[in-house]
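hiii so um. not sure if this is the right channel but i have a protein structure encoded as tokens and i wanna go backwards to a sequence. like what aa goes where. can anyone help
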């Protein structure tokens, strides 16, 4: 671990029609950052790839810190690249990298190295503004505090990615949204492929179809948002409602690039108290229509109440019932929802029923969600 002192930067302000958005960077705050576990980079190879993408190897990119900024000796310190996440749906991925075509899941012990671990590379900008994610100041934490984005030289981000690879982790570009740093992410992905022979993962809102197409050769998996039906997606993503259909269509196109290209696809949909079964049925129809289901998983994410956003929280049991109904109508599509009580962190559904790895499930037993324990679903 290294501690880097960062100089002050101006805050970034840009205008959207009818709204001024402000990105808080480390303006006058003299924030240092603690960048997790860096590896050695091949400077010449990196310079050549950057030249190809017409970027400076050391140009700063905005990164979101993980957790609270701490203070030590009067100095504020943010933790960068400290977050890891498991790829939860891997219990339905078979040995040749496709999803099980039968209604069965692997136990964690059956997976060669357990659930794959991703190192989350959180970029600090996004091209949309979902009200439950950012309000006025791009990003806030659970307490409503503005999360200050930190400018970090790209070469240091790459070094963090190399370190992640050396620890057996998968680099996952996330955010914010990595689509805001297209050339930078393409360059890092190319470097990791060329120098280390490894692929990356992305978590993306679906808007960058051509960017994902360019990344595809170096992509092992992608989480792509499909946040709502066309008439609601604009509201959910904080864009004009008349742009909703285009955003919806783009997400489907982006999904198709991933799954038809043979990379694992995790479509992610937030579920609110007002989300109807019919809406989810329509999403299921389109997901199945455009994607190769051998590579496609669909995660329902329960909306967790956010300060300043009065959207209704969905009732977990009702959502599970909705999932069973939709799953029954689209029996070839794997569905999942985060479930803390499951060891792998995910409850799986297929062909209308919850799939357990027990013999009972194989025999067609419909497990009752949450039965016999006090567990609650993990926030989406
Ligand atoms: S797409 Fe993701 S990062 Fe961007 S505003 Fe929405 S929730 Fe936040």
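sure thing!! here u go:
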């Amino acid at each position: 671990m290294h501690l880097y002192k960062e100089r002050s930067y101006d805050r970034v302000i840009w205008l959207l029609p009818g709204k001024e958005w402000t990105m808080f960077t480390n303006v006058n705050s003299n924030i240092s950052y603690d960048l997790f576990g860096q590896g050695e980079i091949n400077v010449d190879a990196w310079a050549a790839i950057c030249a190809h993408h017409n970027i400076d190897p050391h140009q700063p990119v905005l990164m979101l810190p993980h957790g609270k900024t701490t203070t030590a000796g009067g100095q504020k310190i943010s933790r960068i690249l400290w977050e890891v996440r498991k790829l939860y749906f891997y219990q339905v991925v078979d040995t040749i990298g496709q999803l099980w075509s039968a209604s069965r899941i692997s136990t964690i012990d059956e997976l060669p190295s357990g659930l794959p671990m991703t190192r989350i590379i959180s970029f600090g900008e996004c091209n949309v503004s979902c009200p439950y994610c950012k309000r006025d100041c791009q990003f806030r934490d659970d307490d409503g505090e503005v999360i200050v984005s930190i400018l970090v030289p790209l070469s240091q981000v790459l070094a963090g990615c190399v370190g992640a690879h050396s620890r057996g982790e998968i680099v996952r570009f996330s955010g914010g949204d990595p689509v805001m740093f297209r050339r930078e992410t393409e360059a890092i992905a190319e470097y990791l492929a060329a120098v280390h022979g490894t692929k990356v993962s992305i978590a993306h809102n679906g808007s960058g179809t051509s960017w994902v197409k360019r990344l595809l050769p170096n992509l092992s998996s992608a989480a792509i948002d499909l946040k709502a039906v066309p008439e609601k997606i604009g509201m959910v993503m904080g864009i004009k409602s008349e742009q909703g259909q285009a955003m919806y269509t783009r997400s489907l196109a982006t999904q198709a690039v991933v799954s038809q290209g043979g990379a694992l696809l995790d479509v992610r949909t937030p579920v609110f108290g007002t989300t109807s079964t019919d809406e989810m049925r329509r999403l299921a129809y389109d997901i199945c229509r455009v994607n190769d289901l051998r590579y496609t998983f669909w995660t329902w994410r329960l909306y967790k109440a956010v300060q300043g956003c009065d959207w209704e929280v969905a009732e977990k049991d009702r959502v599970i019932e909705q999932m069973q109904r939709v799953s029954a109508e689209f029996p070839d599509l794997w569905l999942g929802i985060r479930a803390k009580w499951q060891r792998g962190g995910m409850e799986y559904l297929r062909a209308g029923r919850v799939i357990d790895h027990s013999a009972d499930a194989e025999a067609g037993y419909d497990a009752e969600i949450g039965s016999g324990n006090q567990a609650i679903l993990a926030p989406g």
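oh and The chain has one domain: 2-362.
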